[in-house]
Amino acid sequence: MDPYQLKKLNAERRARRAAVLVTDLGDGRDRLVCEGDAVAGELGTAIAEAFRTGASGVVEAEGRSFFLNAHLPQPRLVVIGAVHISQALAPMAQVAGYPLEIIDPRTAFATPERFPDVALHAEWPEDALKVHPLDSYTALAALTHDPKIDDFALKAALEAGCFYVGALGSRKTHAKRVERLMAMGVPAERIDTIFSPIGIDIGAASPAEIAVAVLAQVIRAFRSRDTARQPKGQAA
What we know:
The chain is α/β, with parallel strands linked by helices.
């Protein structure tokens, strides 16, 4: 591998940005394609699929053979609120391959006893997200029902381009949330991407069932990013 390409790849990986190393199997030349770079034709289609799935392999395009080595950051899930849903969601997300972090300034709830082996930040989102910034490979679920805690995190997630942003609450609750976010300067088209009520519609009632619905929606959003948006469902 070209040392220059390796240096570029390592820089992208450190910054949690996706890249695909494209190697022409005919002449051995390689180049790095970063997410968002324009690549036309059959090869461009294959590269787009590699970015979506994270799968590496040989593809045929324009009469040549290429090996696509996809490097995607591991998706992570940031949960705002150390609540009962979060307790059920944490082990599920870990098993599914989505490392989970919880942010909640309420120290009575955000305790290691309630959340063993979970990255826990007993801070306001304004402070925690300065140290642990959001990015396009992060999903954010706001679960506190408290605007003082949820709203800043939702605004930050929309501005960071998180691949999933969901918020707990009824449609009436969300309508008020929309008004607050618009007053904070968030464009209406971004607010419209929030999944609320949160979770796919499976008729969930208990915290554990809602956690299942949320995780399913997160996974669907990750696997369908850059394609048509799936209909918004509800769980709570």
